[in-house]
Design goal:
Layout lengths: L1 E6 L4 E8 L2 E9 L11 H23 L8 E7 L3 H18 L3 E5 H7 L12 E6 L4 E8 L2 E7 L5 H11 L7 H8 L22 H17 L3 H32 L3 E5 L6 H14 L2 E3 L10 H13 L18
Parallel strand pairs: 1-4, 4-5, 6-9, 9-10
Antiparallel strand pairs: 1-2, 2-3, 6-7, 7-8
Length: 333
């Protein structure tokens, strides 16, 4: 089985080749143009995908030493994501599959983040809990098998990745600000400042409240001292990061207690955060968890994870058709 996978859900154009369950190539083209606007502009993103997709796919095939006629199937991110961006990848995959006369595999983006854990060793045992954290999603997912997953807790408003980026914007940090908060936090005191948080029922999250409390905090402090941010940047970033990660782990620990599951994984773009990765290892040692973190290249959006998910979908006989449509919103079921 040789699969070409395409990822275009947001602002990374990526292509990967998987053969016999192993990733042979994983090529990613980033769209730095969005730094000019302080965030991803959907229309600009779709245009950049159109420019990038042919060279990215060609490079993925070249690195894997695979010819188009060697492919068994073509996989693509069907959703969720930005509709214009998704359409570029879906349309390209359909056209190429039609020309080669091979089947299509539509992949759920968030399921793919979870299945990135099966690209390399060590791999979690079933069932396991996966905290999926990104700019658009924050979920606790119970994973019974590669094709059987259920969301048992999720954010009721903003995603944690959005909270990182928006607090960074309030600090006048350039986009994307989340990685910069992580960088500066490593030199700060995580207990320097406290921010009120909202406790949601069951295993759900809320991150809109902390953004409001952080904004009010900055207004008060800068009114008293206009140089407050510059003088306390490291401590502010460390405190914000500590608070956001603590919110995540309060519910993750509760989910482990309630389900009895101690196989615990994290996935998604925010799983590249050093504070989150360190906290998972620390909690794992304290609570007797077996913990799993993907390699950095498989944390952010990439086609390698799409290829891995497609591998299991293909094995299960779950194929897409030429009538398959991109889905900007798509729940895990």
């Amino acid at each position: 089985m040789t699969i070409l996978a395409i990822e275009s859900s947001c602002d990374e154009t990526s292509a990967s080749v998987l053969q016999a369950g192993k990733i042979l190539s994983n090529v990613i083209a980033n769209q730095t143009i969005h730094e000019l606007y302080g965030g991803v502009v959907p229309e600009v993103a779709s245009r950049e995908h159109q420019k990038n997709i042919v060279p990215v796919v060609s490079e993925a095939l070249r690195q894997a030493n695979i010819q188009p006629q060697d492919l068994t199937a073509i996989a693509f991110t069907q959703g969720p994501g930005l509709l214009g961006s998704l359409l570029v990848g879906v349309s390209f995959a359909k056209g190429m599959a039609l020309g080669l006369g091979i089947p299509l595999v539509g992949v759920h983006h968030m399921k793919a983040h979870i299945l990135a854990h099966f690209i390399d060793e060590p791999k979690p045992s079933f069932p396991f809990l996966c905290l999926t954290v990104s700019g658009g999603h924050t979920q606790i997912v119970r994973v019974e098998s590669p094709t059987d997953m259920r969301v048992i807790g999720e954010t009721q408003d903003d995603a944690v990745g959005e909270a990182f980026d928006k607090t960074a914007k309030l600090l006048d940090l350039p986009y994307p600000g989340g990685p910069l908060i992580d960088k500066y936090a490593q030199q700060g005191n995580p207990k320097a400042f406290e921010f009120p948080t909202v406790e949601m029922p069951a295993l759900n999250y809320s991150f809109s409240g902390i953004k409001t409390s952080f904004l009010n905090f900055l207004k008060k402090q800068t009114h008293q001292n206009p140089n407050f941010v510059q003088e306390n940047l490291h401590d502010i970033c460390a405190s914000v990061q500590y608070t956001l990660i603590d919110i995540l782990f309060r519910k993750l620990k509760r989910a482990s207690r309630e389900t009895g599951i101690k196989e615990i994984a994290i996935a998604g773009g925010v799983s590249a955060n050093s504070g989150l990765r360190t906290r998972l290892q620390e909690e794992g040692e304290l609570l007797g968890w077996n913990t799993y973190i993907p390699a950095f290249q498989y944390c952010t959006d990439n086609a390698g994870m799409i290829a891995m998910a497609a591998y299991y979908e293909y094995e299960a006989g779950k194929l897409a058709s030429q009538a398959t449509q991109a889905q900007a919103r798509w729940e895990i079921k």
